[in-house]
């Protein structure tokens, strides 16, 4: 089968297409024949070495497809089931074996392409708005990179929960996307002082929470944009890791700072199923719509990484085996 390996740490040029044998599922595992593979920023962290791992490695944490074979002891699925998973390395391939207790069934009303595009990003949005900081009606929140994969879901979901959403984006085209998803206010971060604009919008009160997947470039702005007892959830490093901070710096407004990871919020199979159920329910309601902004053949994973890191993508990106 075709698979894409990172042969060493580095830029997109370290991604190479290889021919690997189709794996055999062991006890508690299923073999999934992929129909679509999700591209996520965490893939670039694995490739670059920001999140170290042994090389060479088949990248990718998210895919959807059809169960082709079962390992011993698997009762959660049967052959032919439509499933999706995240959190198991090896998705950049035509097939993969995954633990059965880390995959979820895909409802008939959700396409496998949508499932591959949304599971990791959607579950990330789910825990951010429902559990990391519970968004309440009437709150004003700030979402950075609001036209991106997670950002666009955050905007829609927060609006469905009754929040006023301030969104930051990098271009007029992305501003239009954010407004289309329901953002109440859109700030072009390259042209405006974000913290000053947030203060103007909120009458100097600041926001209840900032969802920041950008990292280094937005960290100080995010802190300045918070109101009293506000929460900064810095959940990504698109521009590089956020800088170190002394706890005393949070004291001026009794701020909360967290660096949450999805996998700590879906650590058990029960949490995984509940998160997926909430995600699929909000999709079914129509409150959140998933847009696949671009697709690449699996063999062109390098070009997909270049586009993602160059901020030339909108919405979700898929690799098609």
TrEMBL record:
Pfam families according to UniProt: ADH_N (PF08240), ADH_zinc_N (PF00107)
SMART domains associated with the record: PKS_ER
InterPro entries assigned: ADH-like_C, ADH-like_N, ER, GroES-like_sf, NAD(P)-bd_dom_sf, QOR-like, Quin_OxRdtase/zeta-crystal_CS
EC number per UniProt: 1.6.5.5
Keyword Oxidoreductase: yes
Alphabetized UniProt keyword annotations: NADP, Oxidoreductase
Name of the protein this chain belongs to: NADPH2:quinone reductase
Annotated organism of origin: Caulobacter rhizosphaerae
């Amino acid at each position: 089968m075709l698979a894409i390996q990172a042969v060493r740490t580095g830029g997109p040029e370290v991604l190479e297409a290889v021919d690997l044998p189709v794996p055999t599922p062991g006890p508690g595992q299923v073999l999934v024949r992929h129909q679509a593979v999700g591209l996520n920023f965490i893939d670039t962290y694995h490739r670059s070495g920001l999140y170290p791992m042994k090389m060479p490695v088949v990248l990718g944490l998210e895919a959807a497809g059809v169960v082709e074979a079962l390992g011993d002891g698997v009762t959660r699925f049967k052959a032919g089931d439509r499933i999706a998973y995240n959190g198991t390395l090896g998705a950049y391939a035509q097939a993969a074996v995954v633990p059965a207790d880390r995959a979820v069934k895909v409802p008939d009303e959700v396409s496998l392409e949508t499932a591959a595009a949304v599971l990791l990003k959607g579950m990330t949005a789910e825990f951010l708005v429902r559990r990391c900081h519970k968004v309440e009606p009437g709150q004003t929140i700030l979402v950075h990179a609001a036209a991106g994969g997670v950002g666009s879901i955050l905007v829609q979901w927060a609006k469905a929960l009754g929040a006023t959403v301030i969104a930051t984006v990098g271009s007029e085209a992305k501003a239009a996307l954010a407004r289309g998803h329901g953002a109440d206010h859109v700030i072009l971060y390259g042209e405006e002082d974000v913290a000053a604009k947030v203060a103007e919008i909120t009458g100097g009160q600041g926001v209840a929470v900032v969802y920041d997947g950008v990292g280094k470039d937005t960290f100080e702005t995010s802190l300045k944009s918070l109101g009293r007892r506000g929460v900064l959830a810095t959940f990504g490093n698109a521009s590089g890791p956020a800088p170190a901070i002394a706890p005393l710096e949070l004291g001026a407004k009794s701020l909360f700072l967290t660096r949450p990871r999805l996998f700590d919020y879906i650590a058990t199979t029960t949490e995984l199923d509940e998160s997926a159920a909430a995600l699929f329910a909000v999709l079914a309601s129509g409150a959140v719509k998933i847009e696949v902004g671009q697709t690449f053949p699996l063999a062109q994973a390098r070009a997909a990484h270049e586009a993602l890191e160059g901020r030339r993508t909108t919405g979700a990106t898929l690799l098609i085996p």
